[in-house]
Design goal:
Structural class: mainly alpha
Order of helices and strands: HHH
Number of domains: 1
Strand content: under 5%
Distance between the termini: 42 Å
Shape: elongated
Helix content: over 70%
Radius of gyration: 17 Å
Amino acid sequence: MRDDQITRLQALSESLGEVVIHEVDPANWPGGTKKPGELTQQERGDRYWSKKNAAATMTLLLKVVNITGVLGKQKPGKDDDAAQELDGELAAAEREAQSIIDRMQRAGNVH
């Protein structure tokens, strides 16, 4: 990929991050702060869809971050120490995001 495409993907990852933050917030799901037993059938279905959509958006974000990270590593002239530090931060963020996805999917299977 060209450098300008990598830069555009990185900018898109920031936008996707904002979408993920909004979509994973339970206050934004149908039924708001209702307890699961208080939800209507429609709210339960819409809430489940919202969780699945949030998980899909997070997966998309992770893939974009992975692609830009891999492509960024292939560019010559990177400082190895800074690259290793970023790799560690990226790996930690990916583990955290996967943990959130796993929890959301488990919660989606319960309701």
